[in-house]
Amino acid sequence: MDQKPEETKVDKTTKLATPKNFLIPIMLLHLREWSSHGYELMEKITEFGVESVDQGNFYRLLRQLEKDALVTSEWNVSSGGPAKRIYSITEAGERYLETWAGSLSYYQKMLDQFFNLYNPFFTPYRASTQSKNEED
């Protein structure tokens, strides 16, 4: 009788990709603070914590946001180098971002409840920071 070699389980860390639709409010949030060119915006999103942003998809998404009137762009030729397209959020983009913020607030409450049930001693960082600030 043939014996199969014992399979070993390998611990793999799964990196969760940022869903494409979650990338949109992150982009709009940064554009709300300042208008910027695409590369600069991509850097800010990476600093925000999005680990991998596909450059081709990122620029396609920016063009789609412009078609949907959530952002607008103009060419900046005054920088002394090659012309760069500068993106800005529109009023429609602001409303879209506000809707997302409301939804995320709702999901944040659900996540807090999840972790309270998962581990009653778990205190989310946000909540522990708020309570320290309230004590001051």
Strand content: 5-15%
Helix content: 55-70%
Radius of gyration: 21 Å
Number of strands: 3
Mean pLDDT: 81
Which parts are unreliable, with pLDDT below 50 for 5 consecutive residues or more? 6-16
| Major sheet strand order | 1-3-2
What's the helix count?
5
Cα-to-Cα separation, first versus last residue: 72 Å
Class by alpha and beta content: mainly alpha
Instruction: Describe the global form.
Output: elongated
**Largest sheet data:** 3 strands, antiparallel
Give me the strand/helix succession.
HEHHEEHH
Please give the structural blueprint.
Layout: H1 20-33, E1 36-37, H2 38-48, H3 55-67, E2 71-76, E3 84-89, H4 91-118, H5 125-135
Antiparallel strand pairs: 1-3, 2-3
Structural overview:
The protein is built from five helices and three strands; from the N terminus they run H-E-H-H-E-E-H-H. The chain has a three-stranded antiparallel sheet. It is elongated and about 55 Å long. Pfam families: PadR (PF03551). This is Poly-beta-hydroxybutyrate-responsive repressor.
What descriptors fit this protein?
57% helix; 136 residues; three-stranded antiparallel β-sheet; 5 helices; elongated; mainly alpha
